[in-house]
Specification:
Rossmann fold; about 30% helix; alpha/beta; 6-stranded parallel β-sheet; about 260 residues; 7 helices; 2 domains
């Protein structure tokens, strides 16, 4: 299978970078084809601006969605964006490897998402409807994150909220929105001072998750066309499972 690993950390000796290298080596050893986007090494430009759309006239107001769709459909995006889009199209699965900074991805990775998933590529009138068998149906995704906090702080009753809820904007709002099936996130906690024995344990656990990239069950998010939502995209009364609340409502109960 073909896998794209996108890594985002400014320090090549970081835990994040070490896990990214481990993932690449492990996946290749298993016989997969792997491409890598190391965003800091690439000096990736994180901001969307008119330079992304070379044909956009300077005297025209920049309406990002319209300009990005026009450039995407015409094959006239900037070369760096077009190259990353080709990697996403090529991949059967995408692994995003990053540290959890302020409960989200680093700005450079958010900028990769903003610039690469253009209108006409990941969303918009020219592609299938969101939250369904979208434009990237059949692809899978895994978020692999490092966090300084202890695991109990990210539990369902932890002060930070569950890791699934923290990463919901990426899991549901990026992947599932575009038809990519996200797996449960993989996280290494207490990452600021990880002793060697715990790093060995983390590698072993990560290997198991990578081995299941195409066999583990994805998060069972509901589809927009599955009869669970009304015309205003709100869950119908009684659809939610008893005792659920918050973001979990948008995932079907397992079993």
């Amino acid at each position: 299978m073909k896998i794209l690993v996108v890594s985002a950390h400014p320090e090549p000796r970081s835990l994040t970078a070490s896990l990214a290298r481990f993932a690449v080596d492990h996946l290749r050893a298993a016989g997969h084809e792997v491409r890598v986007s190391d965003l800091y090494a690439m000096k990736w430009k994180a901001t969307v601006d008119a330079d992304d759309f070379p044909d956009h006239a300077g005297d025209r107001r920049l309406q990002v969605m319209g300009a990005s769709e026009e450039a995407t459909l015409a094959g006239r995006l900037s070369a760096d964006v077009a190259a990353e889009q080709e990697k996403v199209r090529w991949a059967d699965a995408v692994v995003l490897q990053f540290p959890l900074w302020w409960f989200s991805a680093p700005a450079i990775l958010k900028g990769w998402i903003d610039r690469v998933f253009t209108a006409g590529f990941g969303y918009g009138p020219a592609v299938p409807a969101p939250y369904t068998e979208g434009v990237f149906a059949g692809k899978r995704a895994l978020l692999s994150v490092t966090a300084g906090a202890r695991p109990s702080a990210f539990s369902d009753r932890g002060i930070h909220g569950s890791i699934g809820d923290v990463l919901y904007p990426l899991q549901h709002g990026l992947f599932w929105f575009t038809g990519i099936a996200p797996l449960e996130p993989f996280a290494v906690y207490g990452s600021n001072d990880l002793p060697e024995e715990r790093f060995a344990e983390a590698r072993q656990a990560y290997a198991a998750r990578l081995d299941g990239l195409f066999t583990h069950e994805p998060v069972p998010f509901r589809t927009l066309d599955g009869g669970d939502y009304d015309h205003d995209m709100r869950l119908l009364p009684g659809v939610e499972a008893p005792g659920t609340e918050g973001l979990a409502l948008h995932a079907r109960p397992r079993g």
